Amino acid sequence: xxQQKKITFLIALSLxxxxxxxxxxxxxxxIFVWGPFRWLSIRVTENRGIAFSIPFPRALLIILSAAIIGxxxxxxxxxxxxxxxxxxxxxxxxxxxxNLLDRIFHGAVTDYLNIATGSFNLADFAIxxxxxxxxxxxxxxxxxx
Length: 145
Fold this sequence. Notes:
alpha+beta
């Protein structure tokens, strides 16, 4: 169990650092548009709402995001996990934390990957991949000693 917690922590921390570094580099470096195809480009955009820029009050979104992360941490502590679930949890929490940091310090999430129908970032993909791993990797409540 300790090994899974270390893996989860390292994945979450690495994801936050990498995603924030990419965002910082793109925003401060002045790289705004680049794309080899019409349906795929790198362009810095801000998302002040929830998914697909649906409007939502910022303060409430910060509170809900923090509550979901807290609930996820509580759930992780109370369950025994496979390696897949530990990976999924690290991806989910790391992505959620990175986007939460954007909302707290910049007022919006910085997206930079534009794919056909919307703008995303590494954290968004990590959240989705993490949730899929959690859904398909078994976890069970810890046994009482």
